[in-house]
Amino acid sequence: MSAIDADRSGTSERSDKIPERKDPDRWGVKRAENLIQSLQGVLSARVVVSPIGEVTEVHVLTSAGIVPKQVVRNVESALLAHLGVKVDHRKISVAQTAEVSPIQVLEQHAVREESLRRAIVYRGLDVRMANRQRVVLAVTLEHAGEEFTGEEEVADSAKSRFVGAARAAVAALDRILPQGTLELEGVKRLEAFEEEFAFAGVQVVEGRSTRMLAGSARMSGQPEQAAVLAVLDAMNRWMDSRRQ
């Protein structure tokens, strides 16, 4: 074998040994943990997923005096509303500790209180028959400890229910918004990265200014629910930008 052939052979062998680059957070675990840690009373969180990305365990550490059942409900709602991830409450474990330095407690409390004051949490979607051909979709959201419901009546078809759910979410959000008004620009089902998503556009009108908001949610359950979560994604991003 010639020197060139030997060199090529060596190069080929070396290239075969180069390790593949892997995404350090392929399933968005860090994003989920950061979200849980922003909840009131939570000091740290660890999310465990299976090789296919399914959440198998959620471990939460809270300060003393926090009701564990409420923490579990908050974690469920936050993951569903912000990331579109539904987790069985039995997979969430809560531990408590008082061994935290005063400065850490004050800093975390201030950040989480502000996050809680601003956050809009999805509470549920109710569908009921108006008559044989029409349905009423009611979306309930929670903000600052108070629940707000928006309703929309539409024809009983898949497309109408999908758009109607988004309109009901906007109606509920319009009641939360302290000033200005909201208008649904549209909601669509899109495919990307071998997944299907709901994509929503919402206009915010404040005085003479208008701003277009956009949000998305993975279609992991009911299409109507994904439409609602896409609208919430757009709204929460806007509220976060205003806070910053």
Q: Characteristics of this structure?
A:
single chain; 244 residues; alpha+beta; GMP Synthetase, Chain A, domain 3; Double Stranded RNA Binding Domain; 2 domains; 3-stranded mixed sheet; 3-stranded antiparallel sheet; globular
Task: List the topology elements.
Layout: H1 3-16, H2 29-37, E1 42-49, E2 55-63, H3 68-83, E3 92-97, H4 102-118, E4 120-129, E5 134-143, E6 146-155, H5 158-176, E7 181-192, E8 195-206, E9 209-218, H6 223-243
Parallel strand pairs: 2-3
Antiparallel strand pairs: 1-2, 4-5, 5-6, 7-8, 8-9
What can you tell me about this protein's structure?
The protein is of the alpha+beta class and 244 residues long. It has 2 domains: 90 residues, GMP Synthetase, Chain A, domain 3 (2-Layer Sandwich), CATH 3.30.300; 124 residues, 2-Layer Sandwich (Double Stranded RNA Binding Domain). Helices cover 39% and strands 36% of the residues. It contains 6 helices and 9 strands, in the order H-H-E-E-H-E-H-E-E-E-H-E-E-E-H. Strands 1-2-3 form a 3-stranded mixed β-sheet, covered by helices on one side. Strands 4-5-6 form a 3-stranded antiparallel β-sheet. Strands 7-8-9 form a 3-stranded antiparallel β-sheet. Helix 3 links the parallel strand 2 and strand 3. Helix 3 packs across helix 6 and helix 5 packs parallel to helix 6. The longest helix is centred in the last third of the chain and has 21 residues. The chain is globular, with a radius of gyration of 23 Å. The chain starts with a helix and ends with a helix. The N terminus is likely disordered.
